[in-house]
Write a structure and sequence with these properties.
- By secondary structure, this protein is of the alpha+beta class.
- It has one domain.
- It contains two helices and four strands.
- It has a four-stranded antiparallel β-sheet with strand order 1-4-2-3, covered by helices on one side.
- About 10% of the residues have low confidence.
């Protein structure tokens, strides 16, 4: 948990981050842009839309690999 706090702190200070994760929650928390890969090929990319945590959203499938750039 301390590592995630440190990452958030470094991002606030302007650090760029490349995060490869299967966790949509981590990508949403730490990144502004994403590239979605399947079998090593880009199938989607774009800006991550920040939402209000109190909003009730339908669960979505996590892609096989999501690389996010912040």
């Amino acid at each position: 948990m301390r590592k995630l706090v440190k990452i958030a702190e470094m991002r606030t200070n302007g650090m760029s981050l490349i995060l490869v994760s299967h966790s949509r929650d981590q990508v949403n928390k730490f990144c502004d842009h994403f590239v979605r890969l399947e079998h090593g090929k880009e199938i989607e990319s774009g800006v991550i839309k920040k939402t209000n945590p109190s909003d009730k959203q339908q669960p979505v499938n996590v892609p096989s690999v999501m690389a996010a750039v912040s």
